[in-house]
Each structure stands twice: as C-alpha cells, then as structure tokens.
Automatic annotation (TrEMBL):
UniProt-listed InterPro entries: Acyl_CoA_acyltransferase, GNAT_dom
Transmembrane segments: none
SUPFAM superfamilies in the cross-refs: Acyl-CoA N-acyltransferases (Nat)
GO molecular function: acyltransferase activity, transferring groups other than amino-acyl groups
The protein, known as: RimJ/RimL family protein N-acetyltransferase
Alphabetic keyword roster: Transferase
Entry annotated with the keyword Cell cycle: no
Domain named N-acetyltransferase: residues: 18-181
Amino acid sequence: MIDMSALREKPTLSGDHVRLVPLAEEHAEALYESTQDPETRRLMGTHRIFTLGEVREWCAERAAQPDRLDLAIIEQAGDRHLGELSLMDVDRYNESAAYRIALSAIEFTGRGLGREATRLLLEYAFERIGLHRVSLEVYAFNMRAIAAYRACGFAVEGRLRDALLWEGRRHDALVMSVLERDFRRAMGPFPGRGGARSAADHG
C-alpha cells in the first residue's frame, strides 16, 4: 500500500538545474502565459484557452488536493518559472499513477530540464510514495519528449490512434509507462547524492 501522506505533503525537490515547488497562486501568471503559447498548446493537445482567473483559481486550489501532486518547475539559477508537472489519478490499491509535464516555452526544451524534473518526480514517486507504476500519454509527433521519457525508463505500451485533431490533421498518442525497476535500471542513483533532495532533508 502506498503512503498517501506523501501526496498531502507537497514537497520541494531540488536537482542540479531545477527545483520542484508546490504549485500555488504565485505561479498563476507564468502558467497562464504558457497556456497562450500556440506551440505549447499543440504539444499538450490543449484546444481550450483559459482565462487568467481560471488559471489563478486552479493554482490556488492545488495545496488542498490530498490525492495528487502539482508542482511548479523553477530554474535553480535565476528562479525563472519553467513549467509545471502533475502526478495524478493515483490508484492506491494497484500502486500506480499518471504523470504529465508541460514546459512553459520552447526555449526551455532540448536542455535536459524536463528530463531532470521528471527524474526528480519519479524518484519521489517510487521512493517516498511507494508507487510501482507511473504512466503517461504523449503525442507521437513529440519526438523530443518521447526520447526524454525513454531516458527515464518509460517504455511504449500502446497507441491511441487519431487521438488528437489539430488544425485539420489527426495524430496518434502513445501510451508509455515506467515501473520502479525500469527507472532504477535507466537512471540509477543521482551522482553523488543517492536520491532527490527534498526540503525536509535539509531542515
């Protein structure tokens, strides 16, 4: 059985280049701006355009969610908001959950930032929460994201045909998952650290 208290804690996790902090109202404007970016919306398959008020309300409610994690991705050097990620749809009996990540702008891709953020979250999911399996869906045209997921141990399980209709074209989505043993095999411990650092680890 997984530790649900680890979902209620809303941790801060630190890596070399990014840190993950609880998503809150202070991140609303940066998150709102990312939802207006056409390429970000295409990669996420988001047709709807949200208002700032809707985004602000959603961010403000994240801390009260007892069964999921929503974290902002912050650059270590400069404190820029890079995006956000979620661990959700937690099945406590089967020790599984779903994962999503969105970087705020294309300029943040291709630098390993999403991969490091994913690694930090998976380390927490497997080691602290006690999950066995984490899954996600990614559009087949998003080759950069697929490569990053593979590097973290994710494997393709299936294909959802014509899952997205975007500007008149239909695109498949890939279903991917990573088991704890896959993650350990792919990543091993953090060099020189032995795991993701949380705020609790450092008082």
